Automatic annotation (TrEMBL):
HAMAP family: PSI_PsaM. The chain crosses the membrane at residues 12-32. GO terms for biological process: photosynthesis. Keywords: Membrane, Photosynthesis, Photosystem I, Thylakoid, Transmembrane, Transmembrane helix. This is Photosystem I reaction center subunit XII. It comes from Synechococcus lacustris str. Tous. It is found in: Cellular thylakoid membrane. SUPFAM superfamilies: Subunit XII of photosystem I reaction centre, PsaM.
Length: 34
């Protein structure tokens, strides 16, 4: 059984991972255009 705390931690981890992927993609695009 998954508790609310672990669900919140998983949700936050997904948000952080997604944000990091977006920042990395933007960095690659900026380096590619320069």
């Amino acid at each position: 059984m998954v508790t609310a705390v672990s669900q919140a931690e998983i949700y936050i981890a997904l948000i952080v991972a997604l944000h990091g992927a977006v920042l990395a993609m933007r960095l690659c695009v900026s380096l590619y255009r320069s």
